[in-house]
Specification:
By secondary structure, the chain is of the alpha/beta class. It has one domain: Alpha-Beta Barrel (TIM Barrel). It has nine helices and 15 strands. It has helices spanning 16-27, 66-77, 105-113, 129-147, 163-171, 190-205, 234-247, 262-277, 285-288, and strands at 2-10, 33-37, 40-45, 54-61, 81-85, 93-96, 99-102, 119-121, 153-154, 175-177, 215-216, 221-223, 226-227, 251-255, 281-282. The strands form four sheets. Strands 1, 2, 5, 13, 14 and 15 form a six-stranded parallel sheet that branches. Strands 9-10-12-11 form a four-stranded mixed sheet. It has a three-stranded antiparallel sheet with strand order 7-6-8, with helices on one face. It is globular and about 50 Å long. Bound molecules: zinc ion (ZN).
Length: 289
């Protein structure tokens, strides 16, 4: 029984202090964290609030944040930190009546003033298979060299990924953190069809639960991450955790260090404590997939 802690959006714009503040107490007890890391992140404003959210087109390589690099390298060496790939620059596109454009603060301020209905599209929900393959290849090899590690898991920005995004991931031999989409939007394989059938049967008999098993599609694997945010339905969350503990399935908490303040932070620590005292073991996602 594995407990995985996944934290998204680690990038040049993060500081070692904010990571240490939240996870230091866990690291000191040998508890592991898997960080979804953006290699060349643009700056985000008001993350998590799509009414006010916007970005700047100023991608910065993680390597320019020397203190963070030293902190991460040390955590990787001690076996406490797993690095996963989280897109390339994490720049959204926004779809409005005039078509789609980069979700920059400039563009969004015009669109919001016009009262347009906006739809945000994650970095890996658009683009061609060749573009996405190259983004994964170069982003991954940059981070592997910088942090002296191997990266096998991909976390799509905003948990959105197209069919071509999946193909790009397979071409790079990676697995996916997250169980995305309800229809069969994956490579064709007997294994994949069996997994999909199992998913449907599971949802028929457990309507309030998420499919908890490792989903094997033949050429890549996926595991659901359970989002822990200020709007999480805690009763459902605890039911899912209890179910996974009872049946011996892995449980992947998916959160953001910048969102875990105050009471939610205490709740997060409590969840980790409950899972570990009831027999779950702290693992990285690459030990499970
Ligand atoms: Zn993200």
């Amino acid at each position: 029984m594995a407990l995985i802690i996944r934290d998204d959006d680690l990038s040049f714009w993060s500081t070692p202090e904010e990571i240490e503040d939240l996870y230091g107490p866990l690291f000191r007890r040998g508890i592991k964290v898997s960080f979804a890391t953006i290699p060349f992140a643009v700056r985000m404003h008001n993350a998590g609030d799509f009414e006010r959210f916007c970005q700047e087109e100023d991608p910065r390589p993680l390597g320019e944040n020397k203190e963070l690099v030293a902190y991460l390298r040390s955590g990787v060496r001690k076996g406490l930190i797993e690095i996963m790939l989280h897109g390339y620059d994490h720049l959204y596109r926004v779809e409005a009546s005039a078509g789609s454009m980069a979700a920059t603060c400039e563009n969004l301020s015009v669109l919001r003033n016009r009262g347009e209905h906006l739809r945000f599209i994650g970095e890996f929900a658009g683009g061609t298979v060749d573009e996405l393959t190259e983004k994964i290849r170069s982003g991954r090899s940059y981070l592997e060299g910088l942090l002296d590690t191997k990266i096998t898991n991909f976390v799509p920005p905003s948990n959105q990924i197209s069919y071509d995004g999946i193909r790009a991931l397979i071409r790079n031999g990676m697995n996916l953190s997250g169980l995305i989409g309800r229809k069969y939007d994956r490579e064709w394989s007997l294994r994949g069809l069996m997994t999909f059938t199992d998913r449907i049967l599971f949802s028929l008999s457990h309507s309030s639960l998420t499919y908890p098993k490792i989903a094997d599609y033949g050429r890549h694997r996926e595991l659901a991450g359970y989002a822990l945010t200020p709007t999480t339905d805690r009763q459902r969350y605890e039911e899912q955790l209890a179910f996974c503990m009872k049946k011996g399935y892995p449980f992947q908490i998916a959160t953001h260090y910048w969102e875990l303040g105050g009471e939610l932070r205490e709740y997060f620590y409590q969840l980790v404590e409950t899972a570990l005292t009831q027999g779950m073991r702290s693992k990285h996602l690459n030990e499970v997939l």
